[in-house]
Design a protein that fits this description.
By secondary structure, the chain is α/β, with parallel strands linked by helices. The protein contains five helices and six strands. The protein has a single domain, classed as Nucleotidyltransferase, domain 5, CATH 3.30.420. Strand 2 and strand 3 form a beta hairpin. The longest helix is centred in the first third of the chain and has 15 residues. The model has no long low-confidence stretch (mean pLDDT about 95).
């Protein structure tokens, strides 16, 4: 299965909710509200002090939570470029999470490119972000923190 992933509501913006969605023949989404993002950041700051790229860690954790139940069915993951120049960082973090449950998952199955506003993944993520649809799963800080 080839999937495309898109984000609506950037993770680093603590005044917005964030949604990640993937689509192909099936679709799935995860929703993280702004209060839960702030909880994650607060715990990270308590544990590590000042963090420069905390949002990349949370983004990679959300990506993992989005795809983890479908890992064995996925042939390719195309992730919309959200953090230009940081793709390799996000890919490395995501691979570390994936390889805990699927040790032989090849890194070349993950790619980053602009998927566009007409992508079904974008339409799903944006619809949930705008409260026109419901997310498949609501993520809490407790779901993310063990991954950080």
């Amino acid at each position: 299965m080839h999937i495309e992933v898109d984000e609506s509501g950037r993770v680093e913006n603590l005044t917005q909710d964030s949604v990640l969605a993937f689509s192909n023949k099936i679709f799935y989404s995860v929703f993280l509200n702004r209060r839960e993002k702030r909880k994650c950041l607060q715990v990270l700051r308590q544990h590590y002090g000042h963090l420069k790229n905390w949002f990349l860690k949370i983004f990679a954790a959300l990506l993992f939570l989005l795809i983890k139940d479908f890992i064995d069915k996925i042939d390719n993951i195309v992730i919309d470029v959200e953090y230009s120049g940081r793709d390799s960082d996000v890919k490395g973090m995501l691979l570390r999470h994936i390889r805990k449950i699927e040790p032989s998952f090849p890194k070349d199955k993950i790619a980053f490119r602009n998927i566009g506003k007409k992508s079904k993944a974008h339409l799903i993520a944006y619809g949930i972000y705008k409260k026109k649809a419901k997310s498949s799963k609501i993520i809490k800080a407790e779901d993310i923190l063990p991954l950080l």
